[in-house]
Amino acid sequence: MSSRIVLHAGPAVGFDQPFEMLAACHDRVRRSLDLLERLHA
Predict the structure, then answer these.
(1) Overall pTM > 0.70
(2) Per-residue pLDDT for the chain (41 aa), expressed as one digit of tens each?
(3) Total count of domains within the chain
(4) Is residue 2 part of a domain?
(5) Does residue 20 lie within any of the structural domains?
(6) What is the DSSP string of 1-41?
(7) Burial degree of 24 (CB within 10 A; 0-12, 13-18, 19+)
(8) What gap in Å lies between CA 1 and CA 17, rounded to an integer?
(9) Could you tell me if residue 6 is inside a domain?
(10) End-to-end CA distance of the chain, in Å?
């Protein structure tokens, strides 16, 4: 039996909502940078 772990939400917006897509991308980048800072510390 295997379980699936979701580490992040899937894409909630698409190219039909470009500004929301850009904001979601920036949120992912910020979370990645926060994680890298914590791993480096």
Answers:
(1) no
(2) 566 655 666 656 778 999 999 999 999 999 999 999 999 98
(3) 1
(4) no
(5) yes
(6) -------SPPP---TTSHHHHHHHHHHHHHHHHHHHHHHH-
(7) middle
(8) 39
(9) no
(10) 36
